[in-house]
Amino acid sequence: MCRPPAVDAVLRSAAGKEAIARFGRPSVVAAVRAALSELRASGVPHSDAAAIGAIVIERLAASARPSLRPVFNLTGTVLHTNLGRAPLGQAAMAAASEAMRGPVTLEYDLGTGSRGERDEHLSHLLCALTGAADATAVNNNAAALLLALNSLAVGREVVVSRGELIEIGGSFRLPEIMMRAGVRLIEVGTTNRTHPADYAAAIGPMTALVLKVHPSNYRIAGFTAAVPASALAALAHERGVPLLHDLGSGVLVDLRRFKLPSEPTVAEAIRDGADLVTFSGDKLLGGPQAGLIVGQRDLIAEINRNPLKRALRIDKIRIAALAATLALYRDPDRLALDLPTIRLLARSESDIRAVAERLRPLLQAALGLDFAVETVSCRSEIGSGALPVETIPSAALAIASLSHADAGRALVGLAEALRKLPVPVLGRTAGQRLLLDLRCLEDEAAFAANLAGLGEDAGQGP
């Protein structure tokens, strides 16, 4: 058996030189040594320097690939938490890119030449769109709620209906957030029914806030009762206590104008008498991840004095993207054109079906005779806890196995093959079919070109 090449021989080879140029000498030396060590341990005939150099390039290229990768979201969930929720519009991306290029007036007042406030880049837009007196922003809505509670009610009581003690993704539970905020939870009513008298009996000298939580990620149906926000605000104000309304998803326009299910807007919550409203920037609002707080000026000032605000604030990139997104709402008639979240949610089933019919023969050709592809009607979910029981009509490419004894295993193998494409394709399984819901597919040409990466192992199980 021939001796393996020396490390230096691999480094001097053409492949070794290419590797050094691409990945740097220290990384290549370590990779070559690892490859040679594995080769010696394997007991197989040793490769020459060029072959080992090629192996090293392949390994280093794979390790250099970013783990945060673009995908085709064909799951049927538009605001998919695991896939980054709302895609940003062109205006937001351009603004974020400009903010990244160099110094910006993040906390600098050009008029006075002195220090400014980063919230001012957002507050005027938020106030104009919601009718609130002031506004501030942090890194997500959970942080917004935590900060508001800790700023205004630490060491005191906060009254909440039992039917609104929510849990959202990642085991986020409202009672635990309230405990971390340093407030005492006072539960009123029952899981399904809470009345004004329940709140009235609970509000006392130690009450700092009344909290109303919009059930954006669940619904309780049947024998139910809840106190409307306007009535709860009147009761809280009668007792001299502010009302904090957590809306969650963050809707700034009436979604019915886009033929979507209705969801309460932030402006409605303000008009109903909420002293503070918290909501997300990256759900139905369609911007980057952020938690927004709007409301009374004195309460916002108190929140901004909290040292936690600095720990939870957002950076210049997200401020720029969020400001550009909010600016789009000044012209609601163009939202379906300029804001991807609204555009994707408002797509008609007929338009999506037309896309499916154009792509169906291409996908069929890529999959071969082992699978059948047809266009079917389906229902898309909005996602991220927004409108949890509402779905919207859509169309999908449905793939079924034809020549496999174990159809389920074949579909698992196909789903894996789709995830291994240059741009991974993510669908969902429904019965004995793999569905590719095309609601979120806007670049048909890129998707079609991507199908060329499907290999012969597309139908093999794991």
Could you state the oligomeric state of the chains shown? single chain
Percent helix, as a range, is 40-55%
How far do the termini sit from each other? 36 Å
Radius of gyration: 28 Å
Structural class: alpha/beta
Which percent band covers the strand fraction? 15-25%
Question: What is the top-level CATH class of the largest domain?
Answer: Alpha Beta
Low-confidence runs: none
Q: Number of helical segments? A: 19
Mean residue pLDDT: 92
How many independent structural domains?
3
> Any idea what the shape is?
globular
Number of strands: 17
Instruction: Give the name of the CATH superfamily of the largest domain.
Output: Type I PLP-dependent aspartate aminotransferase-like (Major domain)
Major β-sheet annotation:
7 strands, mixed
Describe the structure.
By secondary structure, the chain is α/β, with parallel strands linked by helices. It has three domains: 7-64; 72-81 and 344-459, Aspartate Aminotransferase, domain 1 (Alpha-Beta Complex); 90-336, Aspartate Aminotransferase, domain 2. It has helices at 7-12, 14-23, 25-42, 49-64, 90-101, 120-130, 141-153, 174-180, 196-202, 229-238, 266-271, 297-304, 308-312, 316-328, 335-338, 340-346, 349-367, 407-419, 444-450, and strands spanning 72-73, 108-109, 114-115, 134-138, 157-161, 167-168, 172-173, 184-188, 207-213, 243-248, 276-280, 291-295, 371-383, 386-401, 425-426, 428-430, 433-437. It has a seven-stranded mixed beta sheet with strand order 4-12-11-10-9-5-8, sandwiched between helices. The protein has a four-stranded antiparallel beta sheet with strand order 13-14-17-16. Strand 9, helix 10 and strand 10 form a beta-alpha-beta unit. Helix 2 (14-23) packs parallel to helix 4, helix 5 (90-101) packs antiparallel against helix 14 and helix 6 runs parallel beside helix 14 (316-328). The chain starts with 6 loop residues before the first helix and ends in a 12-residue tail after the last helix. The model has no long low-confidence stretch (mean pLDDT 92).
